[in-house]
TrEMBL record, chain A:
Subcellular location: Membrane
GO cellular component: membrane
PANTHER family named in the record: ABC TRANSPORTER PERMEASE (PTHR43471)
Membrane association type: Multi-pass membrane protein
Key words, A-Z: Membrane, Transmembrane, Transmembrane helix
Protein name: ABC transporter permease
GO molecular function: ABC-type transporter activity
Any Pfam family matching the protein: ABC2_membrane_3
Main location class: membrane
Transmembrane segments: 21-41, 173-199, 220-246, 266-288, 300-330, 350-370
ABC-2 type transporter transmembrane domain residues: 24-369
Length: 393, 302
C-alpha cells in the first residue's frame, strides 16, 4: 500500500465521520443564521438611516419636490407626504411614522420634529427655503430666475484632495473584518478538532492498531488533511451564502471585492490551518484524556485569540501602522491579519509574498517538529508526556 | 528459507532503568498455536508490541519467513492489543471496513470480509451500531474481527480471552484453531493456563523479560526432575533407596522426587517388597504448577 493511499484513507475517514456529525450540520446552520440575521439587520439599518419621511401641509406642499431633489444631492432619500390635519400629523411625528412635518408658507416656514431634527434635512430645507425667497425677490428686480440660475451653475469650488478617501473603504473594512473573524473561528475550531481527534485515538487506544499498519506521519497528515477539508467546506459554504445574502440585500457591493476576499481567505485558511493543526496535534499527543486537553491547548488558543483581538483593533485604527504591518508578516499572526489587510487594500505585494514565504517556512519547520513530538508521544499513555522527552530521539 | 515462521530473535528492551526484555527468543511456525504465559509485567505485551513495530527494540530482530519484518509484512499481521482499542463513535461495519482497507484491502474486498466476520462472530444485528453502544463482550468480538478482517498471515493476540463469557471463549478458541489449521501461525498470551494447556501446540513461559521454558505442553510437563506418585501404607522403605526423596505426603499417598539416573522400576520393586501398592504413576505437573514453579524460582533468583 502506498503512503498516498494510507493518507487518503485516513483523511477520508476523518472527513466523512465529521461531516456526518450533527454538531457540524448544526454549527454551520447557526453561523449562517447569525450571518443572515446580521445582513438583514444591516440592510434595515441602512434603509432607516438613509430614508426620511417628511410630511407637508398647506402651502408648504410646494416645497416637497425641491426638497426631495436637494436632499438627494446631499445623499439622503426623502419620501414626501401630504398631510391634511395638523393634529393627526403631529401624532405621526410623535410615533415616528413621520421624521419631520413642514408647515406654514415661505418665508415663515416651520418644521416640527420629534427630538432633534436631522441636520442634513434641516440644511436642505433651509437651502430650499432661501432659494424660494431668492427667486421671489429676483422676480421683483426684473431678471428672470433662469438667467441667474444659468450664471450660477458654472460657479464651483475646485476641490483638491490631499488624501483621497477610498469610496469603498467602509466595505473593504467590513470584508476584512469578516474574513479575519471567519479565519479566527476556523483555525480555533478545526485546530481544536484535530487535537480532540488525536486524544480520542489515544484514549480509546485505537492508535495502537492503527500504528501497526500505518506510520505516525501518515496518520497525522491524513487527520490534518481530512479535518482541514471539513473546515474548508464549512468556510466555503458560509462565504458563499454570506456573499449571496449580502448582494441580495445590497449590504455590500460584492463583485470583485468579495471574490478576491474569498480567494485570499481560502489561501490563508490553508496556510494557517497547516501551521496550527500540527501544533494542536503535537500538543494533544502529550496527554491521554480529553480532560487534560485544555491545559496543553491554552497557549496555542491564546496565540490565535491575541492575534485576532489585537489585530482587529489595530486594523480598524491604523491598518498600515508599523505594529500591525510587522505582526501581519509573522507566521503565528499572518493567517488572521494578512487577509484582513489584503481586503483593506493596504498590503503591498512584497509584504504578502514575504508573509506567505515565512508561513511556508514555518509550516515546514513545525510539521517536522510536531510530527516528531507526535510520533514519540502518541503511544505513551498514562501521565502527561513532558515536551522535552517527546523531542528526544 | 523458512516458510510461514515468525521468529523473535534475541530482542531486548529497556525503559530507562527497567529491563523489560532480555534476549528473548522464540518462534511460531505455520499452523501452530503458541501460548505465551508469564506473570504481570514479565514482558509479554512489550514483546508483542515490538513484533508489531509499535515499539522499537533496543536490540534483536523480528523476522517473518526469514526476513526482518517491515511495514509491508507487518500489515499482514492481525493484532489484538492488550488495551482494547476501537473508535467509540464509529459504526461496527464502517470500522471494520476502514481497518481492512488500512491493511491493504481494496474497498470491495474490505466490505466482503467485514460482513463475513460480522456474520461469523454473531454481530449481524449490531453492524450499524456505534461501538460504544455495544456490550463489553460484543466489543471484544468486534476487536477480534478487527484483528481478522484483513485475512492476516500471522495472528498476534494479547490476552484475547480476558473478559469473555464461556460462549465467546468457545467461539474465540474455535476461530484460533481454524486459523492455525489454515497454516497461520498464531501467538497469544493468556493468564488462563488451563485454556492455554488445552488449546496450544506449544507454550512459552516468560519471566522477568526472558523466555525461561518453551516447548510442547507434553515436553514441558515431562521435563524437569522426574516425580512419582505412590500409594502404599508406609513410606519407610524409601529411606533405603539412594536418590529418592519424599517431597509430599498425604495420608497413604506420597510424591517422590528422583535424582536423574534412578530407575523407577527399582523404586517400584522396593515399594512392593514393603507392602501392597495401590497406585504407582509418573507425576506430570500441570501447566499451572510448572508456571508457579518457574515464576517462584525466578523470583527468588532475581
Amino acid at each position: 500500500m502506498t503512503s498516498a493511499r494510507a493518507v487518503s484513507l485516513v483523511a477520508k475517514r476523518e472527513f466523512v465521520t465529521k461531516v456526518r456529525t450533527r454538531s457540524f450540520l448544526i454549527g454551520t446552520a447557526v453561523i449562517i443564521a447569525v450571518l443572515a440575521g446580521y445582513v438583514v439587520l444591516q440592510s434595515v439599518l441602512f434603509d432607516d438611516q438613509q430614508r426620511s419621511v417628511v410630511g407637508f401641509s398647506g402651502q408648504a406642499t410646494q416645497l416637497a419636490d425641491p426638497l426631495q431633489e436637494k436632499a438627494r444631492a446631499f445623499g439622503i432619500d426623502v419620501e414626501t407626504r401630504d398631510v391634511t390635519t395638523m393634529s393627526g400629523a403631529e401624532q405621526q411625528v410623535r410615533d415616528g411614522s413621520l421624521d419631520a412635518l413642514v408647515t406654514g408658507a415661505p418665508p415663515e416656514l416651520k418644521m416640527i420634529v420629534k427630538g432633534s431634527g436631522d441636520e442634513v434635512l434641516t440644511t436642505a430645507l433651509n437651502d430650499v427655503l432661501r432659494q424660494q425667497v431668492l427667486v421671489a425677490q429676483l422676480a421683483e428686480t426684473g431678471k428672470t430666475p433662469q438667467q441667474v440660475a444659468e450664471s450660477l451653475a458654472d460657479v464651483n469650488v475646485a476641490v483638491t484632495a490631499l488624501e483621497p478617501v477610498d469610496p469603498q473603504r467602509g466595505q473593504r473594512l467590513a470584508i476584512g473584518l469578516i474574513v479575519a473573524a471567519l479565519l479566527y473561528y476556523s483555525l480555533l475550531v478545526y485546530g481544536t478538532m484535530v487535537a480532540q481527534g488525536v486524544v480520542e485515538e489515544k484514549s480509546s487506544r485505537v492508535v495502537e492498531i492503527l500504528l501497526a499498519t500505518v506510520r505516525p506521519w501518515q496518520l497525522l497528515l491524513g487527520k490534518v488533511i481530512g479535518l482541514g477539508a471539513v473546515g474548508l467546506l464549512q468556510l466555503l459554504v458560509i462565504s458563499t451564502v454570506g456573499l449571496g445574502l449580502s448582494s441580495a440585500f445590497d449590504v455590500i457591493d460584492v463583485g470583485a471585492l468579495g471574490g478576491t476576499a474569498l480567494l485570499t481567505g481560502v489561501l490563508w485558511y490553508l496556510l494557517g490551518f497547516f501551521l496550527y493543526a500540527t501544533v494542536f496535534a503535537a500538543a494533544a499527543s502529550l496527554v491521554s484524556r480529553q480532560e487534560e486537553l485544555q491545559s496543553v491547548l491554552t497557549p496555542i488558543s491564546m496565540t490565535i485569540i491575541v492575534a485576532f483581538v489585537a489585530g482587529i483593533n489595530l486594523m480598524i485604527g491604523s491598518p498600515s501602522g508599523t505594529t500591525v504591518t510587522v505582526l501581519s508578516l509573522l507566521p503565528p499572526f499572518a493567517p488572521i491579519l494578512m487577509p484582513g489587510r489584503m481586503a483593506l487594500g493596504v498590503a503591498p505585494a512584497w509584504q504578502v509574498l514575504l508573509a506567505v514565504a515565512l508561513a511556508l517556512a514555518a509550516i515546514a519547520a513545525i510539521t517536522w517538529l510536531g510530527g516528531k513530538v507526535y510520533a514519540n508521544a502518541v503511544l505513551r499513555t498514562g501521565a502527561r508526556v513532558k515536551l522535552r522527552e517527546a523531542l528526544k530521539i | 528459507m523458512p516458510e510461514g515462521v515468525l521468529e523473535i530473535d534475541r530482542i531486548s528492551k529497556r525503559y530507562g532503568e527497567v529491563v523489560a526484555l532480555r534476549d528473548m527468543s522464540f518462534d511460531v511456525r505455520a499452523g501452530e498455536l503458541f501460548g505465551f504465559v508469564g506473570s504481570n509485567g514479565a514482558g509479554k505485551t512489550t514483546a508483542m508490541r515490538i513484533a508489531l513495530g509499535v515499539l522499537v527494540a533496543d536490540a534483536g530482530e523480528v523476522r517473518w519467513n526469514g526476513r526482518a519484518v517491515d511495514l509491508d509484512t507487518r500489515r499482514r499481521i492481525g493484532y489484538m492489543p492488550e488495551e482494547r482499542g476501537l473508535y467509540p463513535r464509529m459504526k461496527v461495519l464502517d470500522q471494520l471496513v476502514y481497518l481492512a482497507e488500512l491493511h491493504g484491502m481494496s474497498t470491495n474486498e474490505a466490505h466482503t470480509s467485514a460482513e463475513n466476520w460480522i456474520a461469523r462472530l454473531g454481530l449481524r444485528d449490531r453492524r450499524t451500531d456505534e461501538v460504544q453502544r455495544l456490550s463489553l463482550g460484543n466489543q471484544q468480538r468486534v476487536q477480534l474481527a478487527a484483528a481478522l478482517v484483513h485475512e492476516p498471515d500471522v495472528l498476534v493476540l494479547d490476552e484475547p480471552f480476558s473478559g469473555l463469557d464461556p460462549v465467546a471463549v468457545d467461539v474465540m478458541s474455535q476461530v484460533l484453531r481454524e486459523k492455525a489449521a489454515a497454516g497461520v501461525p498464531v501467538v497469544f498470551s493468556s493468564h488462563q493456563l488451563d485454556l492455554v494447556e488445552r488449546l496450544c501446540d506449544r507454550v512459552g513461559i516468560i519471566s522477568a523479560g526472558s523466555m525461561v521454558a518453551s516447548g510442547t505442553v507434553d515436553e514441558l510437563r515431562s521435563g524437569g526432575v522426574p516425580r512419582l506418585v505412590v500409594e502404599s501404607p508406609t513410606t519407610d522403605w524409601t529411606v533405603t533407596l539412594d536418590g529418592v526423596r519424599v517431597i509430599e505426603k498425604n495420608g497413604t499417598r506420597c510424591v517422590l522426587e528422583l535424582t536423574s539416573g534412578v530407575d523407577d522400576q527399582t523404586v517400584l520393586h522396593a515399594a512392593l517388597a514393603a507392602g501392597p501398592v495401590h497406585e504407582f504413576s509418573r507425576h506430570r505437573p500441570t501447566l499451572t504448577e510448572l508456571f508457579r514453579n518457574v515464576v517462584t524460582t525466578e523470583g527468588r533468583s532475581a
